[in-house]
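Lab channel / #folding
Pinned by the channel admin:
"Please post every new chain as: sequence first, then the structure tokens as a reply. Keep commentary short and put observations after the output so the thread stays searchable."

First post following the new format, from NK:
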Amino acid sequence: MTENPGRELAMNKKRHTIDVDFFRQLDRFTFMVRKRVSTAYAGNRRSIHSGRGLDTVGYREYNRGDELRAVDWKAYARFEKLYIRQFEEDKSLTTHILLDSSKSMDYTAGDSPSKFEYATMLAAGFAYLVTKDNDKFAISTFAENVDITKPRRGRKYLLRAIDRLETVKAGGKTAIDECTIQYGRAIHSRSLVIIISDFLQDPKEIESAIYRFSDHDLMLVQVLDRTESALNIHGHSRLIDLESGVKLETYISEDLKTEYQEKLTKHINQIRDTCSKVGAEFYTFTTDIPIFEAFFHTISRRRL
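Reply from TO:
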């Protein structure tokens, strides 16, 4: 956060609300990533799963040890040999959304929403599209610790999640490494993991978090204020670390702005390179970008 002498840049203290108008625009997109798993179903198991995305992909001969109830008796009547019908099942991934609620996310320098408000809208949008597929999701906030919520499905759960997010107050320092360790223990199968943060932490901690979720379908969304992505102040200024409260009186010269931009670019490129190594997606947005434009950019690549 920056200040000019004699002027305080007030933090946004109003209770943030989530604008749900853009949800209708998301209806044309399909977000959920599906994992196709080939397995055998027959008899009463086939009737139980009928109409739930199971497609016949072929047959295989009966082997000793297979359950007789798995035999396709119609095939037996036709060929006088025992066959097991094989199906291909669509299994959607549970979506885990990790939302940074540390104090640094509370920053805004102008008329744009705070980073946390913007990130909250993104999280709600992702959850909305998952809900449209009637699949499970969880939105968990983290700072020094992570507030883990259990994945569930349904519109009522979505509305409860949005109500909860509207009451969350950004605060505390960011401990992304420890929080992802904690959250990793709560994921029991391959999932879609979305982390939304300003990612202004120690690069090594961010790298550890990325590798920790590398076995999952992973997406990182960085949210910055425009004044963070392009330092546009000049002269005598006071810099404040929102998480520690430390203030620094300094003079912002053109050389200092150039050095800042180079370091920020290097930091972002390190995150992007690590994501590339593990096959994760990485996006970065500033809060002055229309929320739907940012959201469209992240999901357009996932349109099926």
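NK: The longest helix spans residues 254-278.
TO: also worth noting, The radius of gyration is 24 Å.
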